Amino acid sequence: FDPGAWSAERDAARRAVRPLPFAVVGTYVRPDAVNFARGNANAAGVGPGIGLAVRDVFESRPPDGPPGLVVCNPPYGERLSE
Questions:
Q1: Which long-range CB contacts under 8 A does 45-54 form with residues at least 24 apart?
Q2: Of 48, 38, 40, 39, whose CA–CA distance to 17 is shortest?
Q3: Range 31-59 average pLDDT
Q4: Burial class of 3 by CB neighbour count within 10 A (0 to 12, 13 to 18, 19+)
Q5: What is the pTM of this model?
Q6: What is the rounded CA–CA span in Å between residue 5 and residue 67?
Q7: For 4-43, how does the pLDDT look when each residue is reduced to its tens digit (9 = 90+)?
């Protein structure tokens, strides 16, 4: 392990971070989970580019703009139909 090489690579990666060309939005019903996610996003250096909110998935709406992709983890028991 070379601490100097690690620092140089980490710093280069941080300088290479660019704004995403699409919206990233996350919602969850538990405030503690949203705060945890916000802290992780900030620690990763991408916090300002991600919109996080405490909200039920059934109350969520897509952001304005072109069509995109929705990724979700539905409530337990509602994931699969009969």
A1: 45/14, 45/17, 46/17, 46/20, 49/19, 49/20, 49/24, 50/24, 50/25, 50/26, 51/23, 51/24, 51/25, 51/26, 52/25, 52/26, 52/27, 53/25, 53/26, 53/27, 54/27, 54/28, 54/29, 54/30
A2: 48
A3: 90
A4: exposed
A5: 0.63
A6: 41
A7: 999 999 999 988 877 777 788 889 999 999 999 999 999 9
